Amino acid sequence: MTNRDAPQVIKDSSMLKQKEMIAGNYAKLEAAPATGQKVVSTFVPGNLNELIMCFDMLNNLPEINALQNGMRKRTGAYIMEAEKRGHSEDVCTYVKADLGMIAKGNLGPDGQKLPDPDLLLLSYTGCFTFMKWFELLRDHYKCETAMLHVPYQGDGKITPNMIAYVVKQLKEEVIPKLEKISGVKFDIDRLREYLARSARAEEDLVWVLETAKSKPSPIDAYFGGVYYIGPIFTAFRGTEDAVEYYRLLRTEITERLARGQGPVTPTGELTEERYRLVVEGPPNWTSFRDFWKMFYEEGAVVVASTYSKVGGLYDLGFRHDPARPLESLAEYCLGCYTNRNLPSRIDLIERYMHEYQADGLVINSIKSCNSFSAGQLLVLREIERRTGKPGAFIESDLVDPRYFSPANIKNRLESYFQMIDQRRAGSRAARAA
C-alpha cells in the first residue's frame, strides 16, 4: 500500500488545537534568547504553571521533551549517549533522554535548540529521581534553583499543617526567586484570574474522563487520555487556550456519547467494545501506536487509568480555587498521584474498577520508573482479591526502545483476554445451573 492509499486519520478540532498550542509553546521557548523572555524548567506533577505565568516566564518541562522525543524515535540514541557518559542502565530513562539531548546540542522535539533555563523550579511530589535530575541540571546550567518541598501523604491524607508548610515556602522561597529572575512583581489578583481559568478547564476534563462510565465508552482513558491531559498538565493550565481546548473536547465527546460511538483510534473508530480495563502505570512512548494497537485490535478499551491522574486527581473533587490561591496551589501539589501512599492508590484503583465496570486491571510496569513500579505486584494481587477480577502484568519502559518487546507483550495480553473470556463463560454457566 502506498502512502497515497493509506487510510487518513481525520483529526478533530480539539486535536488540531492542541497541536497548534504545543508548536506555539516550543516556538516561544526557542525564541527566548532573542526576545529576552525568561524560562523556568519544572516538572509535570506539582507543576505551578499559573504562578509561573504571573511573572511572564515560559514553562519548559524536561519529561515532556523526553516523551515527545520518544514518540519521534529519537530517545534511543540520547539514552545511549547518557550511558556512555556514565549513567546507569537503571536510571530513569526520562533523565537519560534529557541529558543525552543536552549533550547532543539540546535540540527540542521540533529540531530547534531549546534555551538554557533561567530558573530550575522543583516541586517535589513523591519522585526522588526528580531531585537528583535537577542536581545534575543545576551543575550543568549553573542557574538559580528553587526547591518546593511537598510533604508525602504517608497517612493517606492532607493536613492543615502540610498546606501551611507549602504556602510558607511559596511565600518565602518560590515567589521571591521568581520575582528576582523575572523582574516582575507578584500580583495575587493575576494569579486568581489564572486559577479561575484552570478550574473551568478542570471541570470539562473531569466530565470527559467520566464519560468512560458509559457503555460503550466514547473515549479511551489511557491511550486517548494522554492527549486529553496534555494541556492541563503542562504549560497551558490557566490559559484561555486550555479553556478553549477543553470546551472543544467536551463538545466532541458529547456528540460521540449521544451517537453511542466508541473511542477514536489511529485507524478509526472502535466499533465493538469487548473488554473494559483499568490500567496502572505510564505508557511506552517509543512504540506508542504499536502498544495501543495491541489493545484496540482485541476490542479492549481502557476506561480509567492512574497515569492520567499523575498531574492531578481532579476526579476526586479538587479544583484550583481563586478564593484561596496559594492554599489551592499547595493542595494541588500535595494531591498528585505520585505523592499518595500505596494503600490510597489501591483504594483508588478499586474505586475505578467498580465505578467504570471494568473487566480487569492491567499493570504496565516501567523498568526505570521506581515511583510507579514500587509495589505494583502487591497492587495487582490486592485488586484481584478485592474485586474478583483478573489482573495482567506486562513490562516495558518510558522512552527506551530496548525494553519494548512487542511479541512478549502481545502474547501476555492475548492470554489475559482469553482468561477474561473463560471467567465470563464460567460465570454464565454458574448462573444457568
Question: Care to describe what's here?
Answer:
With 433 residues, this protein is an alpha/beta fold. It has one domain (13-432). Helices cover 51% and strands 11% of the residues. It is built from 17 helices and ten strands. The protein has helices at residues 13-35, 49-53, 62-71, 75-84, 93-103, 128-141, 160-182, 188-210, 225-228, 230-233, 240-258, 288-296, 325-334, 342-355, 370-373, 376-387, 406-432, and strands at residues 39-41, 58-60, 119-124, 144-149, 264-265, 268-269, 275-280, 300-305, 360-366, 391-396. Strands 2-1-3-4 form a four-stranded parallel beta sheet, with helices on both faces. Strands 8-7-9-10 form a four-stranded parallel beta sheet, sandwiched between helices. It has a two-stranded antiparallel ribbon with strand order 5-6. α12 (288-296) links the parallel β7 and β8 (300-305). α7 crosses α13 (325-334) and α14 packs across α16. The termini are far apart. Mean pLDDT is 93; it is low at 1-9.
Strand percentage: 5-15%
Count of discrete domains: 1
> How does the overall form come out from the CA principal axes?
globular
Extended strand count? 10
Mean pLDDT, as a whole number?
93
One letter per element, helices H and strands E, the order comes to HEHEHHHEHEHHHHHEEEHEHHEHHEH
Number of helices: 17
Assign a percent range to the helix content.
Answer: 40-55%
Low-confidence stretches: 1-9
Strand order of the largest sheet: 2-1-3-4
- Distance between the amino and carboxyl termini: 52 Å
Class per helix and strand makeup = alpha/beta
Largest sheet properties? 4 strands, parallel
**Rg calc:** 22 Å
